[in-house]
Amino acid sequence: MLEKEIAGFGASGRNGGWCSALFPRSTASLAKAHGLEAALAMRRAMISTVDEVGAVTAANGIDCDFVKGGTIAFAGSAVQARAADADVAEAALYGADPLERRDGSVFDPNCARVHPAKLVRGLARVVESLGATIYEQTEVTAWSPGTVTTAAGTVSAGEIVVALEGYGATLSQTHRRVLPLYSLMIATEPLPDELWVEMGIAHGQTFTDYRHLLIYGQRTADNRFAFGGRGARYHWGSAIRSGYDRDPRVFAHLRSALVRLFPQASDARITHRWGGPLGVPRDWHAGVTRDSESHISTAGGYVGDGLSTTNIAGRTLTDLILGSETELTRLPWVGHRSPNWEIEPLRFVGANLGMLAMEAADVEERVTSRSSVAAKIMGPLVGH
Ligand SMILES: Cc1cc2nc3c(=O)[nH]c(=O)nc-3n(C[C@H](O)[C@H](O)[C@H](O)COP(=O)(O)OP(=O)(O)OC[C@H]3O[C@@H](n4cnc5c(N)ncnc54)[C@H](O)[C@@H]3O)c2cc1C
After folding, report:
1. Residue 294 CA, distance from chain mean position
2. Best substitution site from 302, 303, 312 to test ligand 1's pocket, by max atoms within 8 Å of Cβ?
3. Which residue, judged by its Cα, is nearest atom 14 of ligand 1?
4. Does pTM surpass 0.90?
5. Which ligand 1 atom is at minimum distance from the Cα of 20?
6. Cβ(4) to ligand 1 under 6 A?
7. Which member of 65, 178, 267, 302 lies 3.0 to 4.6 Å from 221 by CB, making a disulfide possible if both were Cys?
8. 161 φ, ψ to 5°?
9. Is 164 close to ligand 1, i.e. is its CB under 6 Å away?
10. Cα separation of 144 and 100, whole Å?
11. 12 C-alpha vs ligand 1 centroid, how far in Å?
12. Which protein residue has the closest C-alpha to ligand 1 atom 26?
């Protein structure tokens, strides 16, 4: 494995720790694109992957705070309540996701809370113990069949797997395959158990709500909120810089969103702030591919759902490379190639307009109590 920084430097080491069954495209849109049976097979595979990640961590002694406590999606307004009803009705129609409508929320049992950095460093240790070598501080600059070029020299490889996710945008071969979208997070100081009881978030539980500009949170093993969301601007030319990980405007927005959801946490000190780029394909459809002539494979496009989806990608690539036809290799995301993103300035305008529209739609719905028309129009651009 060739890694520019250290194993876990990317999104895998700094995400929200939702090991969920979510896939960036809904069951309805997968059914439309690939047929109902294929869409349901994808749902079932995603659901079982949550337990698979838990089993891998248990079997290999990876202490990453994995607890499958499910996720709560709050519906804090009449508009959100309608979205929650629609969500539950769609799940009932397809029958794969056992969503449960509760007073003011929807509960999905298929989500585990993890500490992402502990998971990714633990996995790196297991991979090394199985005989693989991870070459850190090794920047890949290009690849062609049988050869990977790095800043330090050339590597021969019978099989090449390109798994750069958002960072693919920084290499010319994959520059327009993916759009790096920043997600930012904050964490509070540890909060007392009584407060958690009052707020109704148990150990191992994650939470979100039905707003358009996504937010996500978890109760960490040491009783902090780790809470994140979108809203950071897309940067011209798909640029990725460490300075983009921190945006005071987004951190302030996250804090007020957290306090609006949990007024009990209004005095909680924010002790950590960070962020990073995730990878968005043009059609928001993750994919795994292998070309049998060049022996080059790709995996990615997970948007904000890569924690569990990378696991299923890894298992699927194993089967593809070994030439085994399995249930995994028949899943509809195998062989899926997303179109390229537009060139600038269209990418810049489109991505940032989409983000602004979602932000405005949330305000509009709060004020008018009606579903936003702008969100409906712009939704498909931002993965709704
Ligand atoms: C703040 C945040 C919160 C998120 N929350 C969640 C969540 O709660 N649940 C969820 O399912 N998903 C979440 N995601 C998405 C998830 O983290 C990613 O989809 C997933 O980690 C992608 O894994 P990956 O291994 O494909 O990519 P990454 O983990 O990004 O790894 C790519 C690696 O490539 C390396 N690299 C870059 N350039 C080069 C080069 N030239 N040569 C060699 N190596 C290079 C990087 O250093 C990096 O380590 C979140 C993402 C972010 C940023």
Report:
1. 29
2. 302
3. 304
4. yes
5. 11
6. yes
7. 65
8. -115, 120
9. yes
10. 49
11. 4
12. 165
Q: What distance in angstroms lies between residue 183's CA and the mean position of ligand 1's atoms? A: 11
CA distance 7 to 4: 9
φ, ψ for residue 351, nearest 5 deg: -65, -45
pLDDT tens for the 384 residues of the chain, in order: 999 999 999 999 999 999 999 999 999 999 999 999 999 999 999 999 999 999 999 999 999 999 999 999 999 999 999 999 999 999 999 999 999 999 999 999 999 999 999 999 999 999 999 999 999 999 999 999 999 999 999 999 999 999 999 999 999 999 999 999 999 999 999 999 999 999 999 999 999 999 998 999 999 999 999 999 988 999 999 999 999 999 999 999 999 999 999 999 999 999 999 999 999 999 999 999 999 999 999 999 999 999 999 999 999 999 999 999 999 999 999 999 999 999 999 999 999 998 888 888 888 888 888 888 777 776 666 654
Give, using CA atoms, the residue closest to atom 23 of ligand 1. 12
CA of 366 to the centre of ligand 1 (A): 33
Task: At 18, give phi and psi (nearest 5°).
Answer: -90, 110
Indicate whether residue 306 lines ligand 1 (CB < 6 A): yes
Across the chain, where does the E strand assignment appear?
Answer: 18-20, 71-74, 100-102, 105-108, 111-113, 140-144, 147-150, 153-156, 160-162, 179-188, 206-209, 215-219, 225-229, 270-280, 287-291, 296-300
Q: How many CB atoms lie within 10 A of CB 73?
A: 20
Q: Is the CB of 23 under 6 A from ligand 1?
A: no
Is residue 185 within 8 Å of 152, Cβ to Cβ? Answer: no
- Residue 195: both structure tokens together: 């407060």
Q: Report whether residue 180 contacts ligand 1, using a CB cutoff of 6 Å.
A: no
Phi, psi of 290, deg, nearest 5? -140, 130
d(CA 20, CA 52): 11
